[in-house]
Amino acid sequence: MAVMGSRWWGLSLRIIGGATLIVSLGMASMVAIAEARLRKQVSSVHGSSPQVEAGLLMRVLNFLWQKGLYGYTHVWPDMKFGWRIVVGTIIGFFGAALGSVGGVGGGGIFVPMLTLIIGFDAKSSTAISKCMITGAAASTVYYNLKRRHPTLDLPVIDYDLALLFQPMLVLGISIGVAFNVIFADWMITVLLIILFIGTSTKAFLKGVETWKKETLLKQEAARRLESNGNLDDDDNEEVEYKPLPGGPSGEGEAENKGPKKEEVSIMENVYWKELGLLFAVWCAILALEIAKNYTTTCSMAYWALNLLQIPVAVGVSSYEAVSLYKGRRKIASKGETGTNWRAHQLVLYCACGVLAGMVGGLLGLGGGFILGPLFLDLGIPPQVSSATATFAMTFSASMSVVEYYLLKRFPVPYALYFVAVATVAAFVGQFVVRKLINLLGRASLIIFILSFTIFVSAISLGGVGIENMIEKIEHHEYMGFENICSYEA
């Protein structure tokens, strides 16, 4: 556990360091663009002078913030049947199917589809994407409520893991939605490309590692069957599939207790105490968000209601973290290795939960883009990782939908239609991939789907963002921060 923790810690530091470097380069490039543009404008009027260089910093700040200027106006196309709706439905269907299986939601595919095909502006696409993620996540959770852990006698959803991350995820969503209003599109694009390339690479490497482990286990099972020579084909299939790479070390004991049911009743499979606590956090923060909507933006009451979300979320996650640290609770899906935790690990994981929520609210994506790879690094089996990330994402995504609705960020008819598409697609995706895993005996399929979805999202969203950035630069449009206190839907 200590070796794995130190390895993950080191890898996390390298990723954060690399991300910081790339952000710095991105910011520097945008400042250079701003400098060239402003220098050209000033020189055309006044000619070159030493004062131009002296005032460079002020002009850069002026580029990023100009009082009374706004770069955002929403674009909502009319809802009518045509090729755009048909193509958008097909892309949205496959995006929801892949996203639900990988536990990432599919927002990286939804946002470009809504922007390029349907014709929404970037921020409205973000809001509708959250609606689609909520529909897909809710149907996936319903599908998983009856399912059991692939090797242990536990639910496939790890409720203790969700209790550690979900409150921080919901808190991060509120921060991310506010940043979505404030940040310019090019800033969101830079952050998105950095995040997605890093997480997709990490997930792919984890998939390759898991694939190799599965291959070794299959070879071992084949040798065992060949030496015994008395097992039929049905037994062969069973032995090949049961060992799950990346799972807990103590899974052998669970397997030897006899046949394990893949599904049980919802009443038996759900941990109601943990679910009730998660729902209470969701309701408390939702109530604060609704109350905030009836206050004047940026007033004392507005900021007080915002700050009240912190003790609610931090309190519940801290309770779970302290219980894990002292051994009163454990991440059961990790087996015996789920009982030893260090304080710095728990703090880092809670911070990752906030970051995942911020990414979700800011970019219109599911927090699973961060939680999925993180759970895999913790040694959680792919099926449990996907199910638990989606479960936590349901709370955070639905919170985003309410907040975007209060901000009047999306047209309801379009949202309802695409929610229906995503809901059906999630059911189909879960069913098909579950059959493929049973047929091939490779749970790493989920990890590769996760990596592929994130990588495609990086290319599509990054491409759209860069194109919009270049267009705004050419037209000399305002590209600075928006004023949240003056925001009007």
UniProtKB/TrEMBL annotation:
InterPro entries assigned to the protein according to its UniProt record, in alphabetical order: TM_pro_TauE-like
Keyword vocabulary terms for this entry: Membrane, Transmembrane, Transmembrane helix
GO biological process, alphabetically ordered: protein ubiquitination
Cellular component, GO annotation: Cul4A-RING E3 ubiquitin ligase complex; membrane
Top-rank taxon, per record: Eukaryota
Transmembrane annotation, as ranges: 12-34, 85-115, 186-205, 270-288, 300-325, 346-375, 387-407, 414-433, 445-466
The keyword Transmembrane helix appears for this protein: yes
KW Zinc (keyword) present: no
Membrane topology category: Multi-pass membrane protein
Residues covered by region (Disordered): 227-260
Subcellular location: Membrane
Similarity remark: Belongs to the 4-toluene sulfonate uptake permease (TSUP) (TC 2.A.102) family.
Record-given protein name: Uncharacterized protein LOC105108832 isoform X1
Source organism per UniProt: Populus euphratica (Euphrates poplar)
